[in-house]
Amino acid sequence: MTTGDVPSPVPDEAELIRRCQAGDVSAFEPLVEKYRQRVWRLAYQVLHDREEAWDCAQEAFVRAHRSLGDFRGEAKLSTWLYAIASRLCLNRLAAGERRLGRQGEETLLRLPHRGAGPDAALEQSELEAALHRAIAELPDERRIVVVLRDLQGLAYEEIAQVLGLELGTVRSRLHRARADLKGKLERFLT
Question: Is CATH 1.10.1740.10 what the domain over 10-101 is classified as, yes or no?
């Protein structure tokens, strides 16, 4: 770039959505880039299988692209994408399409924390593995709420919108899920 060149401004999300809705296929790519990792992370935290999570995330974006003309902007785009991905994940869980995850192998491949001794690193690794197992053992309707709130950081209202639930139901499921997790992880909490 020469000194006289001015970089072209990056269109904001609303502009990209308008362009997609008008038929500009290239405008969808920046949206995918912006949300790819977040949607995949959500799918992975629900399904516990990397490849299945990528498949689910890809399918979520395909469905989002097909349905973008119906997107009215009443919710944030991220909330809408999470809703699509969450439904796909829950459908996979309900349909029994899941393959066994390899959580133990992934835990072994993780590098220990720097500065921590071998005992602390082992204890941290055991805690992380136990937490992932405990989340995986939750009933689907509780697991998705924990993933969206505690791992993805969505507000209660967003979770209610994503899952099509009443706010009280979200709070209740999250409370029960956390109680289940506390019971399963009690030995680490003392």
Answer: yes
